[in-house]
Design a protein that fits this description.
heterodimer; A: Aldehyde Oxidoreductase, domain 4; Aldehyde Oxidoreductase, domain 4; 7-stranded mixed β-sheet; 5-stranded mixed β-sheet; globular; B: about 150 residues; alpha+beta; 6 helices; about 35% helix; binds FE2/S2 (inorganic) cluster
């Protein structure tokens, strides 16, 4: 199965190459030199606002020994970019960075060998300074003089050795982001800014209910130049300008007659629905470890979270243009090849009839509407061959129709010995699947595919395999040492609200629920929450981040202040990725405010310290927003939280101050940073609420109404 | 036909009077800086200055700016001659995806013109109309402080 990253072992019998290089072995796919002194790298991973292009450029510059400024990045595009599946799971530095580091080291070795042959100077006596080869008597050529792409038309050798950690000069430093100047000067960098000659604008007409069908469309006159395009229940207005397209879509909406039924559960009792649907779901084992140990006490608790939305600041957007039987699409998808596969399935054509070119969108925190809007654009543009069509979603579509992160429920029973130490852990995690990403199923998962005249079935979403971190059970297995573990998950087989991957996946609930249990068990054992955690950890890196954050926030010296609370949260993302220990300080007034966050992180080798700190801080602020504010609202027919008023996120006045410290381990593998801090932040805020108010919340978000029912 | 001053230059835009300033700027105006986020005065992505004051371009009919001076992020500065705020945002690496920045930069420019030495609360208040989903807020606040300091130095 493609797309779940490098966690799965190679099954192809080829010599192992790092990251995505294993499946994309030709060096010319990854890099090239031009005669004018530039180096082009072509990763298959894409910029999501996380700074990956800068990180990858650093790795390449370092390994090739060229100035950072010489590196240019080609945006990913089918069919030429390496297929790196999806930019997700905090795996990009691992998958793509590992690949590029090795590919560049291999390319460097080839060039040195050629120079050595030509000059008779032994390879070990040739140095490279900013791309120029230096022999004992001075310069003897450069990458650019040799700029022979034929040299790179070869597979990477497995036996080349990238530089030792100590020899790196650029990787490990806070090089400024290469994409930021464009964004600060308002340059046309986003897919939203693409302007192709003759381009038309399009707006989709959305049904009044989930699963509604377009029964009839009354005839009428649209504004000059505007036209309707319809395929089954997919209806879109096309016009030469944005305002004409909007006006036409509004008119069409008035002429459309839909079938609409109640298909969504009662929002008021979501936990009851989750329990009931779980009875019809697919239960599976996450882990069984150790033997049951006799216990002195047990603690049973249930935790819940609602559906949450991606809520990117920009609505999804795409441009498509047909030429003959081929369609070209510009998209902010996380996975150009996977998107290509699903567009081809929806069109019942071959993948090579679809070209997907990545262009940046606004911040992406998982599988949002980017892929869906790409199919919208393809369908809209089919009516006007040779003419590019740009589809821009509205705010209401973005918040109301993108995939959501599933509502979840977890029941936990922890048992302890007479000393209060954990001896057993049983839990059951209930959720819809956390992936309906395109490219992985014979049926396309794109929104419009289920609305066509010949609709594709909408299957319930799945979970990534446990080996890749799992979906609903992600971080559901405590990292703490517990003799007996028995953890199950149930994936719902009905999906009233379409769900998919959002930053952290199941970890958003699992980490908080585990950490809340640890706090309550610590209190029962009369042990400090920090000490209780340390007593149950044998992972030195976990201990190190917890101790570091304790120093940062002054944990040992903390003073009780009325209305204020301090709490801890810890996790190692996916139990194999980046570590984060977070301390949160909250003030409880008419509602809860998070005032300060301290974060200690460990992501192994840090390629760009400022970039990692930025990701950790961004994830923590995202987590604060999820903890305090976010919940998708719906009635029996549709998602109703489709504006910033009804789906509020954290604003400037509410944002906590954040301090981040990273424990750098240059000799250890990169672990990825994008998702490490969010779930522990939620846990820390939950703990701080308990510290301030003496109540133990059991449901997200921590709003006054929900806290009122906590005990 | 509608005439205004756009980033210091007189322009005439061929758009119906009721079209939003945002669509006029991004369409015939040819600009990318002002961005669409919600169309409803709730996110600040579209913020521009009209006669020096921050206005939501997404709901302002273009006819309302006839004969007035509109400044977008492109009008603050250029890579060769950056506005102190643009230089400070780069120095602080204040942004992740950067989609929110065009609007934030113009609001911050209006703030600094009004109050060259804003405290943190004043900066937060001035940026309250703006959403940043990436969590770049603290860096953005530091960048505004840095720009203010450097402008006073
Ligand atoms: S687009 Fe104008 S405030 Fe959101
Ligand atoms: S940097 Fe992405 S929204 Fe602000």
């Amino acid at each position: 199965m493609s797309g779940f990253g490098a966690a799965l072992p190679p099954a192809d019998g080829k010599p192992k190459l790092p990251g995505s290089l294993h499946a994309n072995r030709r060096l010319s796919q990854w890099l090239g030199f031009s005669a004018d002194g530039r180096v082009t790298i072509a990763p298959g991973k894409v910029e999501l606002g996380q700074g990956i292009l800068t990180t990858l450029s650093q790795i390449a510059a370092d390994e090739l020994d060229v100035d950072f400024a010489r590196i240019e990045v080609t945006p990913a595009a089918t069919p030429d970019s390496p297929d790196e599946a999806v930019t997700s799971g905090s795996l990009s530095t691992q998958d793509s960075g590992g690949a590029l580091r090795h590919a560049c080291a291999a390319a460097r070795a080839i060039f040195i060998e050629v120079v050595a042959q030509r000059t008779g100077i032994p390879p070990e006596r040739i140095a490279i300074v900013d791309g120029t080869f230096i022999g004992p008597a001075g310069a003897i050529g450069s990458y650019w003089e040799l700029a022979d792409q034929a040299l790179l038309e070869t597979e990477a050798r497995p036996d080349v050795q990238p530089k030792a950690a100590a020899a790196r000069r650029i990787a490990g430093t806070s090089v400024p982001r290469i994409d930021l100047p464009d964004k600060v000067f308002g340059a046309a960098r986003f897919v939203h800014d693409l302007r192709l000659p003759g381009m038309l604008h399009a707006r989709v007409v959305r049904p009044p209910a989930r699963q509604a069908r377009l029964l009839a469309l009354r005839d009428g006159a649209l504004p000059a130049g505007a036209r309707a395009v319809r395929d089954g229940s997919f209806l879109v207005a096309l016009a030469p300008t944005e305002w004409a397209a909007e006006a036409a879509a509004l008119q069409l909406a008035g002429w459309a007659e839909w079938s609409a039924e109640d298909t969504l559960p009662e929002a008021g009792d979501l936990t009851a629905w989750l329990r009931e649907a779980a009875g019809r779901g697919e239960r599976s084992e996450v882990i069984r470890r150790g033997e049951v140990v006799p216990a002195a006490a047990s603690l049973r608790r249930s935790f819940h979270r609602p559906y949450i939305a991606h809520a990117s600041v920009a609505p999804s957007c795409a441009v498509a243009c047909w030429q003959g039987d081929t369609v070209e699409v510009w998209s902010h998808s996380q996975g150009p090849y996977n998107l290509r596969a699903d567009i081809a399935k929806a069109l019942k054509t071959a993948p090579d009839k679809v070209l997907v070119r990545h262009r940046e969108g606004a911040g992406c925190y998982g599988h949002n509407g980017a892929d869906d809007v790409a199919l919208d654009a393809v369908l809209a543009a089919r009516a006007v061959p040779g003419t590019p069509v740009r589809v821009l979603w509205s705010r209401a579509e973005e918040l109301g129709w993108s995939p959501f992160s599933s509502a979840m429920l977890v029941d936990i029973e922890a048992t302890t010995d007479a000393g209060g130490r954990l001896v057993g852990w049983r839990s059951h995690i209930v959720s819809n699947g956390h992936s309906s990403r395109p490219g992985r199923d014979p049926v396309p998962t794109l929104l419009a595919a289920g609305m066509l005249a010949e609709p594709f079935p909408v299957k319930p979403s799945i979970n990534p395999p446990l080996a890749a971190g799992g979906g609903a059970p992600r971080n559901g297995v405590p990292l703490y040492t517990i003799p007996h573990l028995e953890i199950d998950t149930t994936r719902l087989l009905e999906m009233p609200i379409r769900t998919s991957a959002l930053r952290g996946l199941g970890a958003t609930l699992n980490v908080w629920s585990i950490e809340a249990m640890m706090d309550e068990l610590a209190a029962a054992a009369r042990v400090d929450p920090l000490d209780y955690r340390l007593q149950h950890l044998d992972d030195a890196r976990a201990v190190a981040v917890l101790q570091r954050v304790a120093v940062m926030c002054g944990w040992r010296e903390r003073q009780k202040r009325d209305g204020w609370g301090l709490g801890l949260g810890f996790a190692r993302y996916k139990n194999t990725g980046g570590y984060a220990a977070v301390a949160a300080e909250i003030e409880a007034r008419e509602r809860v405010f998070c005032r300060r966050l301290w974060i200690a992180g460990d992501v192994g080798e840090v390629v760009n310290p400022d970039g990692v700190a930025n990701q950790y801080e961004g994830g923590a602020i995202h987590g604060t927003s999820v903890a305090l504010l976010e919940r998708v609202a719906f009635d029996r027919r549709r998602v109703t939280s489709d504006s910033w008023e009804t789906y509020p996120i954290l604003r400037f006045s509410d944002v906590p101050k954040v301090a981040v410290e990273l424990i750098d381990r240059p000799e250890l593998p990169f672990l990825g940073a994008g998702e490490a801090s969010m779930a522990p932040t939620i846990a820390a805020i939950g703990a701080a609420i308990t510290d301030a108010l003496g109540i133990r919340p059991r449901a997200l978000p921590f709003t006054p109404e929900q806290l009122a029912s906590a005990t | 036909m509608l005439s205004l001053s756009l980033n210091g230059r007189p322009v005439t835009l061929d758009v119906p009077a009721s079209v939003s300033l945002l669509q006029a700027l991004r369409g015939p105006g040819g600009l990318s800086g002002p961005r669409f986020g919600c169309g409803n005065e709730q996110c600040g992505s579209c913020m521009v200055l009209v006669d020096g004051l921050p206005r939501h371009a997404c709901t302002l009919p273009v006819e309302a700016v006839a004969g007035r001076a509109v400044t977008t992020v492109e009008g603050l500065g250029t890579p060769d001659a950056p506005h102190p705020l643009q230089a400070a945002f780069l120095a602080e690496q204040a942004g992740q995806c950067g989609y929110c920045l065009s609007g934030i930069l113009v609001s911050a420019a209006a703030l600094l013109r009004r109050d060259p030495d804003p405290d943190e609360a004043a900066i937060r208040a001035a940026l309250e109309p703006h959403l940043c989903r990436c969590g770049s807020h603290n860096r953005i606040i530091r960048a505004v402080q840095r720009a203010a300091q450097e402008a006073r130095a």
